[in-house]
Design a protein that fits this description.
about 35% strand; alpha+beta; DUF2953; six-stranded mixed beta sheet; transmembrane helix; DUF2953 domain-containing protein; extended; transmembrane; two-stranded antiparallel sheet; membrane
Length: about 180
């Protein structure tokens, strides 16, 4: 019994867990799937129109810990324990005229590869496919699909958590700092 539980514990810790997700935008609808289960199905305009409260009162920062974001990002870039990502990006689009569609193609294609370069910095990308297709029908059309599988295991998450914890600094009061205690 002990050996079976110990083996199960090792399998859970060492072997990667695949998380499958998909984000689709079709015309003006956004859908988010996790393991083929629909999580979010909304109109894009309903997400944009959310009004924020008009209060401009500044909230008092009551955090006791301070994050050093630059060092966290740099340590995550250099880490060898990155989650593995496989993805497929597909963008089909058309505008009201062929000229702006071609101009947009010249902007979207390099932007997709710049985003891919940023993904490589934080994740280990093993397999990817980017397909950007302009459709010249002279009518507005947009289809965006990002399908991916990210493999994480508990050991890598723990190591990344320790790297982040290393860059968290406890806030010290100015009086304590002045007296060196």
């Amino acid at each position: 019994m002990f050996y079976a539980l110990f083996t199960l514990f090792l399998i859970i810790i060492l072997f990667p867990i695949p998380i499958k997700f998909r984000v689709e935008i079709d015309e003006f609808k956004i859908k988010v799937f996790l393991y083929k289960k629909l999580i979010l199905d909304k109109d894009i305009f309903s997400l944009i129109k959310k009004e924020k409260p008009k209060t401009k009162e500044k909230k008092k920062d009551t955090r006791k810990y301070k994050l050093d974001y630059i060092n966290i990002v740099n340590s995550l870039k250099k880490s060898t324990f990155k989650p593995i990502l496989k993805y497929r990006l597909q963008i089909d689009y058309d505008l009201s005229d062929a000229y702006p569609t071609a101009i947009l193609n010249g902007l979207i294609t390099p932007l997709a590869y710049v985003i891919h370069g940023q993904l490589i910095r934080f994740l280990k990308v093993t397999n990817y496919k980017i397909n950007i297709t302009p459709i010249f029908n002279n009518s507005f059309y947009l289809y965006f699909s990002f399908k991916g599988i990210i493999y994480v295991n508990l050991v890598k998450i723990t190591i990344i958590g320790f790297k982040i914890m290393k860059h968290i600094k406890k806030e010290v009061s100015p009086l304590r700092e002045a007296y060196g205690q």
